[in-house]
Design goal:
Layout: H1 27-37, E1 49-54, E2 58-63, H2 77-96, E3 99-105, E4 114-122, H3 130-133, H4 155-163, E5 169-173, H5 176-194, H6 197-205, E6 207-208, H7 211-217, E7 221-222, H8 230-239, H9 242-250, H10 259-266, E8 270-277, H11 281-300, E9 304-307, H12 310-319, H13 328-345, E10 351-360, E11 378-380
Parallel strand pairs: 1-11, 6-7
Antiparallel strand pairs: 1-2, 2-4, 3-4, 5-8, 8-10, 9-10
Helix pairs in contact: 1-2, 2-11, 4-11, 5-10, 5-13
Length: about 375
């Protein structure tokens, strides 16, 4: 794999010409930390972040509202999960550079775009995790389908161990009958999402159908990463037209919208739900850090990961948001799905449902979406 010049994954400064340990890290080190951070996953590849350097030792991490998903992402939960993954990457890179991060989440109640202030200090000898760090450029969403294969011995234990120190939980479903039911649930969740006009807009506004559009915009869902055959891609483009979806729903053919979700789970070795104590925005950030550790460990072990965020965030809107923004039909459908989902995954009460994941043994993805250049995301304070 070609090395990303922005990401110094194994870079450790040589002792020659090094500033004293007490000196501030400086802009070059801060940018190296950010470069690792922005390789994190984000909902719909929105990359909803921007950074301001404050002096030689601090980074402000800000949410960019215009790249968020107002209808899909209840209370910006998925956005905050992405920021958690970003901060975890930053921390892994920092420790490889003998740096310590001190992270303050949501430090300014008058500015809800400021997700975190990160202070960076030199700490020679700080414990690093090169096994996870090296996986940052390899980690990817894999939407391929294929014959179901079981997880290898030790995979589930390794993934649980990756997140347990952070206080996160992992519910895992791998029995064949349970996966069939999970496929039905995921498919029905997709059906609800695509037949709600605001959510439909969020999904298709962010689609990039051509490589030229993806290269020009640098964010959004790259159609090449959907792993669709030509007829499937043509159908997906049709679904991008709201009148078509409305007509399918009116004809009682909305079940067609559930088929791709069922097919995805048919290829799953397991489905996993990452949870984290609490329901506030900080729980989603901390849960996102744990999620990233799990994903990097999965990458190391050759386990393909596909986030399936629709159901957790629809249920959050149903329960914590009292169904705000959902049609009456969607509320009824979700109320019927929720007990079945709980029976399979047993999410703990009072815990954030950080992310639902498909885990599988598959070939690597055929495409990866480009990302913003770090230089386009960083401002000097």
């Amino acid at each position: 794999m070609q090395r990303n010049p922005d990401l110094a994954l194994d870079a450790r400064p040589s002792s020659a010409g090094m500033p004293p340990a007490s000196a501030a890290p400086g802009p070059e080190a801060l940018r190296a930390v950010i470069a690792a951070g922005v390789r994190a996953p984000s909902a719909h590849n929105a990359q909803p972040w921007r950074f301001t350097l404050r002096g030689d030792d601090a980074i402000e991490c800000r949410r960019v509202p215009e790249r968020c998903l107002p209808h899909l992402d209840f209370e910006d939960g998925a956005t905050h999960v992405g920021f958690g993954a970003l901060i975890e990457n930053m921390d892994l890179q920092a420790r490889a550079l003998d740096l310590r991060l001190d992270v303050r989440l949501f430090p300014d109640e008058t500015d809800d775009t400021l997700v975190a202030t990160v202070r960076v200090a030199r700490q020679p000898g700080i414990a690093a995790e090169p096994d996870l760090l090296v996986q940052i450029p390899h980690r990817a969403t894999n939407r391929r389908n294929g014959p179901r294969q079981p997880l290898a011995d030790g995979d589930a234990d390794a993934l649980r161990a990756a997140i347990a120190p952070a206080g996160a939980g992992l519910s895992l479903v791998d029995a064949p009958d349970a996966l069939v039911e999970m496929g039905r649930l995921v498919g029905e969740g997709d059906r609800v999402m695509l037949t709600e006009r605001g959510m439909h807009h969020d999904v298709f506004e962010g689609m990039r159908w051509t490589r030229a559009d993806m290269e020009r915009l640098r964010y959004g869902m790259d159609a090449a990463t959907l792993e669709l055959k030509k007829p499937e891609l043509a159908f997906m483009k049709l679904l991008g037209r709201w009148p078509v979806v409305r007509a399918l729903r009116g004809l009682g053919a909305g079940g067609l919208l559930a088929a791709p979700g069922r097919q995805s789970i048919a290829a799953a070795s397991a489905v996993a739900l990452v949870t984290f104590p609490g329901l506030g925005r900080d729980s989603y950030v901390r849960g996102g850090r744990a999620l990233q550790r799990l994903w990097l460990r999965a990458s190391e072990r050759g386990v393909a990961v596909q986030p399936m965020a629709t159901l957790p965030f629809l249920f959050a809107r149903l329960e914590r948001g009292c169904g705000e923004g959902l049609s009456t039909d969607a509320v009824h459908r979700l109320r019927a799905l929720r007990p079945r989902y709980r029976a399979l995954l047993s999410p703990p009460a009072g815990h954030a449902e950080v992310m639902l994941l498909r885990l599988a043994r598959l070939e690597p993805p055929s495409a990866r979406a480009p990302r913003f250049d770090v230089a386009d995301l960083v401002d000097e304070g």
